[in-house]
Design goal:
This protein is an alpha/beta fold and 395 residues long. Helix content is 44%, strand content 15%. It has helices at 3-18, 58-71, 79-82, 86-99, 110-115, 118-121, 136-143, 157-169, 192-202, 224-227, 257-266, 268-272, 278-293, 296-314, 334-347, 376-392; strands at residues 34-35, 43-45, 103-107, 127-131, 148-152, 175-180, 182-183, 188-189, 205-209, 236-240, 251-255, 326-330, 349-350, 353-354, 365-369. Strands 3-11-10-9-6-4-5 form a seven-stranded mixed beta sheet, sandwiched between helices. Strands 1-2-13 form a three-stranded mixed beta sheet. It has a three-stranded antiparallel beta sheet with strand order 12-15-14. A hairpin with a 4-residue loop joins strand 7 (182-183) and strand 8 (188-189). It starts with a helix and ends with a helix.
Length: 395
């Protein structure tokens, strides 16, 4: 065996020994509140990003099916050559209007949206100031950019002020403050109002990745800017259609017009990646229409989150505080988290243990995520199973 392969095998064994090895479970049904897996049939799914329960919604499926007759299966092109159909422009206008921005540009994922953002807008004369718990896609996007890099402690506004002052003192020309709208491992909401205040004070742009908020945070589901009452004050919003918005794939950047125009000219993932499939555009447009017609889905997911959190607290579980449908159940040990998840699946509840490097060492947990597709009976069953495993493992 070549030396490199031996090195890789050693690293893999170290992962197994640490208890952080991840197995992919195989689902044999559409994504829903209840799914079948190859390990067990009819399990309650508490770990999908399917916040609004729309992943198998019949109206989205119908919209996608209808799109094939009108727009075909794929474009076999990037956007600027022959990969732009009217349905792509319709979705860009629709999502920009929904989040309150001038315009939007589509990407194959939000990872690509973040990866193609900073290097397009900033040069070595500029600066990015990023929250330390930002998503990996923001971190990678920052790495691709030549701008000066500053990092502030998670949601620490005094530290953000310090970093802004340092960037200005060092003569940085343009500054972007980058943050997740919701920090996905903890379910914490960013302090967007205070971030916007500091951005105004230091003449900086604000960028929010709203992937874990779009569709259900805020009074009308327009995301953390609406939830935090700062719509119109955020300069750049990136997000995904692969979570609450139907759960398929695709992402976007919505922003002030000059920013979107510049991204169309120079953003590498946009210029060199295939265009978004028309069926995803059609289903996502229908998703936005459903959210504009009613707040039923977003109301239900928040009600379910409150109900689940209440039941778990009564059983003495250590939950991170919050108001988001992400409810982390803290266990603090990787092997405990993995064993807990295994036993839950045996009882009919699909959850996953989160360990390093997805979360910091010693912060191992089961991250549960509520969905509008869950019933009260589903949640009661899940809480009961959590309680049984807790007792069985002597926790």
């Amino acid at each position: 065996m070549k030396t490199a392969l031996e090195t890789f095998e050693t690293r893999l064994q170290e992962i197994r020994d640490a208890g952080t090895w991840r197995e992919e479970r195989i689902i044999t049904t559409p994504q829903s509140a209840h799914v079948d897996t190859t390990a067990r049939k009819d399990v309650l799914n508490l770990c999908a990003n399917n916040y609004l329960g729309l992943a198998d919604h019949p109206e989205l499926i119908a919209a996608a099916k209808a799109s094939y007759d009108t727009w075909g299966f794929g474009l076999a092109s990037v956007r600027f050559i022959c990969g732009t159909q009217q349905i792509h422009k319709n979705l860009e206008r629709k999502i920009a209007s929904f989040v309150g921005m001038d315009d939007a540009i589509l990407y194959s994922s939000c990872f690509d949206a973040n990866g193609g953002l900073f290097e397009t807008l900033l040069t070595a004369e500029d600066a990015i100031i990023s929250d330390e718990l930002n998503h990996a896609s923001i971190i990678d996007g920052v790495r691709l950019c030549r701008a000066k890099r500053y990092r502030y402690r998670n949601s620490d506004m005094e530290d953000l002020r310090t970093q802004l002052a340092a960037a200005r003192k060092e003569g940085c020309r343009n500054i972007i403050i980058a943050t997740d709208g919701v920090f996905s491992m903890d379910g914490y909401v960013a302090k967007l109002e205070k971030i916007c205040d500091l951005a105004d004070e230091f003449d900086a742009l604000t960028m929010v990745d709203d992937s874990h908020a779009l569709g259900f945070m805020g009074e009308h589901g327009r995301g953390t800017p609406e939830h935090c009452h700062v719509m119109g004050r955020i300069d750049i919003i990136t997000g995904t259609f692969g979570k609450a918005m139907g759960g398929a794939s695709g992402g976007f950047t919505a922003a002030r017009q000059p920013i979107v125009d510049l991204l169309r000219q120079h953003s590498r993932p946009y210029l060199f990646s295939n265009t978004l499939a028309p069926a995803i555009c059609a289903a996502t447009i229908r998703t936005i229409e459903l959210l504009e017609e009613s707040t039923e889905f977003r109301d239900r997911v928040h009600e379910n989150a409150r109900y689940f959190r209440s039941g778990m607290e009564k059983l003495g579980f250590d939950l991170l505080p919050g108001e988001h449908p992400i409810v982390p159940v803290m266990l603090y040990d990787p092997k405990t988290a993995q064993e807990f998840a295994r036993r839950m699946l045996e009882k009919g509840v699909y959850v996953v243990g989160f360990c390093y490097p997805v979360v910091p060492k010693g912060k191992d947990r089961i991250r549960t995520q509520m969905s509008a597709g869950l019933t009260k009976e589903d949640i009661d069953f899940a809480v009961r199973c959590f309680g049984e495993v807790k007792q069985e493992m002597g926790l």
